[in-house]
Amino acid sequence: MSSIILSILSIYVFIVMGYIAKRSFKDQIDDKTITLLNVYFLQVFLTFWGLLLHPVNITLLYAPSIYIFIVIIALVVSVLFAKKLFENKKEYSIAMVAALIGNTGNLGIPLNIAIFGEASIPYTTVVNLMNVFVVYTIGVYFYSRGTFSAKESLKNILKLPILWAAFIAISLSVYGYRPSDTIMSMLMMGAYASMTMQLFLFGIYLYGTKIREINRTLIGWVTVFKFLLLPLLAFVVLSFIELNGMIKGIIFIELLMPLAVANVNLSSLYDCEPKIVTALVLITSLLFLGVIFVGVKLLSFL
Predict the structure, then answer these.
(1) Other Cβ atoms closer than 10 A to 156
(2) Which tens digits make up the pLDDT trace of 143-162?
(3) Residue partners of 10: CB distance under 8 A and separation at least 6
(4) Hey, CA dihedral for 202, 163, 191, 56, is it positive or negative?
């Protein structure tokens, strides 16, 4: 259990640094510039590095297929209820998608290693890959809809270089391309810079965020959906599927992950209440410190 706690707490170092930096220098730090640099440049390195680090094995794709199936069902459920609960366009966009974008990479991969061992890496890698597509298709669309029209939101998906980088990286991996150590070192530098900047940006947006001013219905909806409805849906679906227990457990844990910092990136990029989204990421991250132990106990019933 100590390794699980350490995996969670280690990422908070850079979040605290971002908060201190914004508090110290205030307007001298431009949040939007950092977002643009990260999304349009550094995350391309992260995408290539993550997808070329381990070969994409077609036989492993069953796990992410189940993952996306559960996410789509959850999205349909969200459509049925969110429209009735939220009249504000931006709050509706957040309610629709925030809980579906979990931290399957920075937190999910090391956490699954702590629970299941290194045998989990191939499965967490492809599930995280599927989550990347959720982020930059469904996520981009709904965060864009807080400000843009449906047509412009669809165009925003195609404008992001990350999605195209993912297609290229997957194609290279499927066809057996193995980058040299020199290229992988270069990609790793950009990848780690991107992950660090994401956490730093989260800390920056935390400064000045006032949880008390956020719509309590929105907080309640996102937290209940994230830690009750989505896990319940996952548990039911996985219970009816004949699959290795470890793979079921990995899918369940990945869906249980708190809101990813990618939510902050997208809400900032498309001007969809980034401070509210930052607060939601913080709240779910803190709640997750207790939820994860309940989740681990439930694994034996899958």
Answers:
(1) 20
(2) 999 999 999 999 999 999 98
(3) none
(4) positive
